[in-house]
Specification:
The complex is a heterodimer.
Chain A: E1 7-11, E2 14-17, H1 21-32, E3 37-40, E4 57-58, H2 70-80, H3 87-106, E5 121-122, E6 132-133, H4 139-162, E7 169-172, E8 175-183, E9 186-194, E10 200-204, E11 207-210, H5 231-238, E12 243-244, E13 249-256, H6 270-273, E14 277-279, H7 303-309, H8 325-337, E15 347-350, H9 357-363, H10 365-375, E16 384-393, E17 396-397, E18 413-415, H11 432-454, H12 463-478, H13 485-499, E19 503-504, H14 506-524, H15 536-560, E20 569-570, H16 578-581, E21 583-590, E22 593-600, H17 606-609, H18 614-618, H19 623-636
Parallel strand pairs in A: 1-10, 2-3, 2-11, 3-7, 11-18, 19-20
Antiparallel strand pairs in A: 4-6, 5-6, 8-9, 9-10, 12-17, 12-21, 13-16, 14-15, 15-16, 21-22
Helix pairs in contact in A: 1-4, 1-11, 2-3, 3-11, 5-15, 9-10, 13-14, 13-15, 14-15
Chain B: H1 3-7, E1 14-24, E2 27-37, H2 43-52, E3 73-76, E4 79-82, E5 97-100, E6 107-109, E7 112-113, H3 116-124, H4 143-153, H5 160-164, H6 181-192, H7 201-207, H8 219-223, H9 230-241, H10 249-258, H11 297-306
Parallel strand pairs in B: 1-5
Antiparallel strand pairs in B: 1-2, 3-4, 3-5, 6-7
Helix pairs in contact in B: 4-6, 6-7, 6-9
Bound molecules: flavin-adenine dinucleotide, iron/sulfur cluster (SF4) (2 copies) and FE2/S2 (inorganic) cluster (FES).
């Protein structure tokens, strides 16, 4: 370590990296468990990605349709994920999300209400009953603000008790973690820099919760912000943890496609939930042509039936616009490819002809606002032009379902939210993320706290590791011969968007891996102009290596998985293969090379299997598994 | 989006003149840039283009690029705005566009300011107090009651209202005592929360947040990108309700505007304002609603019925502007910490409660 480098040191019991829904909920839990907790976030407090979520948070409260229950929610989640989900996570999620939502009300959240004063719930793709607790179309804002305000209230308690707001829970905003530090195989701390000053900061802590969100910034057309560079995924890998399901990325079917500068920005699914329909350039409502066999039972095959569903969901099947996202995204992709797209390369999403203007403005205020101000389009009068946009990564840190503890060769590391993997299988249902954040955020925070309690001795931060971290962080500023980080980012986005996008082919994936290899060398030599103070070029230069390693995981796993399932579509292997359903692909790091292993999926418990009927399971399971299922039901009889 | 517009997406790019403030707390100045601008772009796109070309270290905050996170607040041609929601097409072709950091907060670097003032004020505002004895899951509230608070909860914390408020813009000395419009509506939100267990939100705003400094110039409402009626629906009701407990010079000014059955006489109430008086039953957006932000006729009717509404609904007010289109500020010669009230000084007080124009959920209990 050069003696001139100043490093600010802090000691905490639990360090939570990420101030989105998952991070804040984890921090609240750790603080409630009496632990001294730090929250770290790359942007300002309250600006994390969660703020952008629109549609709602799924929880089977049964307020609108009393037939809803955790079992139905569990079933929908497994179906949506094409049975690749970690069943235990899906089960915990379905069981616990109602409590987590109700809890938010005790923190001051104000959800939209039903007539009898309970939390209102709305329809969403893939959910059998109206299930999404929401606030207009700004649910994520409500969620993050509520958690933010709960943290403030805990800080006020601490101030009354200990004289300082920061006594037991402190927020480090605009601070980026670049490295986790280990003592043997135990987490010992986290190293990073203040974005404002460029000064370094070291947290010594026995337990770290990763809640850093997703990876979408590696794609050009994305609904994700600059923060989503896969930092948590990469930190976990480098610390010896493993990632699963990295081939599964969700492309949201309806991103804005015009004007070009807003390409990718999300048009909430509630537009479809509230009656919006998709049309091609010939004016045809095309989704009826794309209902896959596995979903025929639940989705309408005529416009008349689909339209009746909004009023009478019990006696009609759902409109095909509400199919899970992967299906809708692929359908739009096919229409555009067949030359029936709009001039800007999307399809039309029409709500104007379906609802009175007044009603549209009331139900979808921020969409109305967004189109009016960004595209100069009045959605109460004209259709919107939409197309698929990279939205969510299903893959992430492989965790123990109950505690959120990362698997692999590391202890003291926990993960929750988008950065963790398994819960959503091969495809996430809309609304399942916000509830996922709360359920698993709470669990990870609680278990991190008890892990810290159970330690006989505190791990120590090794000095050489800190020195290396400092050198790595300063390197781009000290080089002036390398390329600009912005150019490298564009090149990376081009590789991922063109070769590892919605529809994948073997040749292209091989090509992508070769190009990522070249990029790796260029990224190693990146140089950033300017100084250490709030220098976005330098910040991007440091994020690039994370984006790169995560992209390699995705490309490798996508090449291996020779089938199409959920967020992974192979043109050369277009169908689902039951044998592949039993396999998770696990990424780990050996040196700095991404290594891929196969691992069998955990086996679902019999009573959960029994929630499905045989005909449905037959579409997903191998014959062998079906025989077991039959034996099982036999026994019960 | 119309077909013709999309076809124009390939229109050739033009070069535009920008003037962007570069520097840090030790000083800096406006730098000229000639930048390519494409069709449909917003100011933030231009900043990103500069970052990836001439100025890789140009500091600017952003996240969502869709007006949802409130990160990208800057001043564009002197007006506080979200860079991601300011379309290039709103400027004339030969206009030089200046982009500067928020004036009210200390500079960090370039377009980034130190907004910690706001987080400190947030931390001082007492949090939601859950109703004792109500278990999670048993909260029952009516939509019309939550909508009042929901309007304020739309706030994306862009702090544009904070930067524009003249009480602290260029008045560093007022900062300790004044929380600013963002936190007045936080207090109002909790005050109107149907289940909040505290009943001293207004007194708190008055005593601790410096509500008395505010003289309803409405600049905050004007810049709010979420179109929250900060003054009409938040600040004014907060001021009015403290009247019988606490002196606030602004309250008696309110009297002047809201006198029963009388068309307000002061120039403050704009006759041309788009939200003229409508019958309470229904009205287009922009009319003065008593049912929060809903504009829903049914909710409106309920709100009216619930509070013995016996007066004409007043017009929304607009600030007095002088010939330059600016608010006349004569603070130097004035005896209060902020600018004089735009309502005139000739009203007597205290304001009789029946002249109050605000529907509190529990109004009838007091
Ligand atoms: C436009 C949009 C709409 C959506 N709508 C919905 C919806 O309606 N319903 C739903 O369920 N889901 C929705 N989602 C998905 C959902 O919002 C996200 O998956 C979820 O918010 C992720 O939350 P999180 O807590 O995991 O992470 P985030 O909220 O993304 O937070 C990540 C945090 O980690 C911090 N961080 C990252 N890297 C570092 C680092 N190196 N050092 C320090 N801090 C770091 C960031 O600063 C940030 O604070 C939507 C997503 C988008 C983009
Ligand atoms: S109305 Fe009050 S709070 Fe708003 S800008 Fe004017 S003085 Fe400030
Ligand atoms: S009230 Fe409006 S202007 Fe003020 S911070 Fe909130 S959104 Fe921004
Ligand atoms: S970037 Fe989020 S509001 Fe502008």
């Amino acid at each position: 370590m050069t003696t001139t480098t100043r490093i600010e040191r802090h000691h905490y019991d639990v360090v939570v990296i990420g101030a989105g829904g998952a991070g804040l909920r984890a921090a609240i839990e750790a603080r409630l468990a009496g632990k001294k907790t730090a929250i770290i976030s790359k942007s300002l407090f309250g600006k994390a990605h969660t703020v952008m979520a629109e549609g709602g948070a799924a929880a089977a409260m049964g307020n609108v349709n009393s037939r809803d229950s955790w079992q139905v929610h569990f079933r929908d989640t497994m179906r949506g994920g094409k049975f690749l989900n970690n069943f235990r996570m899906a089960e915990l999620h379905a069981k616990e999300s109602p409590q987590r939502i109700w809890e938010l009300e005790t923190y001051g959240a104000l959800f939209d209400r039903t007539k009898d004063g309970r939390i209102s719930q709305r329809n969403f793709g893939g959910h059998e009953y109206p299930r999404l607790a929401h606030v207009g179309d700004r649910t994520g804002l409500e969620l993050i603000r509520t958690l933010q305000q709960k943290i403030v209230s805990l800080q006020q308690e601490d101030r009354r008790e200990h004289g300082s707001y920061d006594a037991r829970i402190r927020v480090f905003a605009e601070t980026t973690i670049t490295e986790l530090l280990l003592d043997g195989d135990r987490v010992a701390g986290a190293f990073g820099y203040y974005r404002e000053s460029g000064e370094f900061i070291l947290f010594e802590a026995p337990a770290v919760v990763l809640a850093t969100g997703g990876v979408g910034r590696s794609y050009k057309v994305t609904s994700n912000s600059w923060e989503y560079t896969g930092d948590g995924h990469a930190l976990a890998l480098r610390a010896g943890a493993t990632l699963i399901n990295m081939e599964f990325l969700q492309f949201h079917p309806t991103g804005m496609v015009w004007p070009p500068s807003v390409k990718g920005i999300l048009v909430t699914e509630s537009v479809r939930g509230d009656g919006g329909i998709l049309k091609n350039s010939e004016g045809k409502r095309f989704m009826f042509d794309y209902v896959p066999d596995v979903f025929r039972k639940q989705y309408a095959d005529s416009a008349a039936e689909a339209d009746r569903w909004y009023e009478d969901p019990d006696n009609n099947r759902r409109p095909p616009e509400l199919l899970p996202r992967d299906e809708v995204a692929r359908a739009i992709n096919s229409e555009v490819k067949a030359g029936r797209g709009t001039p800007a390369g999307g399809v039309y999403l029409d709500i104007a002809s379906r609802l009175p203007a007044e009603e549209i403005r009331r139900r979808l205020p921020s969409m109305y606002h967004q189109f009016k101000e960004l595209a100069d389009v009045d959605i109460t009068r004209e259709p919107m032009e939409v197309g698929p946009t990279c939205h969510y990564v299903m893959g992430g840190v492989e965790v123990d379902p109950d505690s959120g503890a990362a698997l692999g060769h590391v202890r003291g590391l926990f993960a929750a939210g988008e950065v963790s993997g398994g819960m959503h299988g091969s495809n996430r249902l809309g609304g399942n993320s916000l509830s996922d954040l709360l359920v698993f955020g709470k669990r990870a925070g609680g278990h991190a706290a008890s892990y810290a309690d159970g330690l006989a001795s505190r791990p120590r931060v090794p000095v050489p590791a800190v020195e290396t971290a400092v050198e790595t962080a300063l390197a781009p500023l000290q080089r002036d011969t390398g390329e600009s980080p912005y150019v490298l980012q564009q090149d990376l986005q081009a590789v991922m968007g063109d070769l590892v996008g919605i529809i994948r082919r073997e040749g292209e994936l091989v090509d992508a891996l070769a190009r990522l290899g070249e990029l790796r060398e260029r990224v190693a030599k990146v140089s950033a102009a300017g100084g250490r103070r709030y220098n976005p070029g330098w910040h991007l230069a440091l994020d690039l290596r994370n984006m790169l390693v995560v992209s390699e995981c995705t490309a490798k796993a996508a090449l291996e998985r020779r089938e199409s399932r959920g967020g992974h579509t192979r043109e050369d292997h277009p169908t689902m293969d039951p044998a592949w359903r039993r396999v998770n692909q696990v990424c780990s790091l050996e040196g700095d090379i991404v290594h891929l292993d196969r691992k069998p999926l955990p086996r679902m418990r019999p009573e959960l299997f029994a929630l499905f009927d045989r005909a449905e399971l037959a579409k997903y399971l191998t014959d062998e598994e079906l025989a077991e299922f039959d034996a099982l039901t036999e026994e019960e009889r | 989006m119309g077909t013709e517009k999309s076809q124009a997406a390939g229109a050739p790019a033009t070069k535009r003149q920008f003037r962007i403030w570069r520097g840090d707390e030790t000083g800096g100045d406006l730098k000229e840039y000639l930048v390519e601008v494409k069709e449909g772009e917003v100011v933030l796109d231009i900043i990103h283009r500069l970052q990836s070309t001439e100025a890789p270290d140009l500091a600017c905050r952003w996240n969502c690029k869709a007006g949802k996170c409130g990160s990208c607040s800057v001043e564009i041609n002197g007006k506080p705005k979200l860079a991601c929601m300011t379309r290039m097409s709103t400027f004339t072709a030969d206009e030089t566009i200046s982009v500067t950091p928020l004036r009210t907060f200390p500079i960090v670097r370039d377009l980034v300011t130190d907004v910690s003032f706001n987080y400190e004020k947030a931390r001082e505002t007492p949090a939601f107090a859950p109703p004792p004895g109500v278990t999670p899951g048993d909260y029952r509230m009516q939509q019309v009651d939550v909508e009042r608070s929901q309007e304020f909860r739309k706030c994306i914390e862009c702090f544009l209202c904070q930067t524009v408020c003249h009480v602290i813009r260029d008045h560093e000395e007022n900062k300790p005592a004044f929380a600013g419009p963002r936190y007045f509506i936080r207090a109002a939100e909790l005050d109107m929360h149907p289940l909040d267990a505290r009943d001293d939100r207004k007194e708190y705003a008055q005593a601790e947040q410096g509500l008395g400094y505010c003289n309803i110039t409405k600049c905050c409402t004007e810049v709010c990108p979420e179109h929250i009626k900060i003054t009409d629906n938040g600040i004014i009701p907060m001021k009015e309700r403290v009247v019988d407990r606490k002196y606030d010079p602004l309250v008696w000014l309110g009297n002047k505007i809201f006198r029963r059955g009388q068309v307000p006489q002061t120039s403050v109430t704009s006759e041309h304002s788009p939200g003229a008086v409508r019958t309470p039953a229904a009205g287009p957006p922009g009319f003065h609603s008593h049912a929060g932000a809903s504009h829903d006729p049914e909710a409106e009717a309920q709100a009216q019925a619930g509070v013995n509404w016996h007066r004409e609904v007043p017009k929304p007010t607009a600030p007095t502007l002088d010939e330059t289109g600016k608010l006349p500020l004569t603070e130097l010669t004035f005896d209060r910490p902020a600018a004089p009230s735009p309502f005139g000084e000739d009203v007597s007080f205290p304001l009789p409660p029946e002249h109050l124009n605000y529907a509190h959920p529990e109004q009838d209990k007091h």
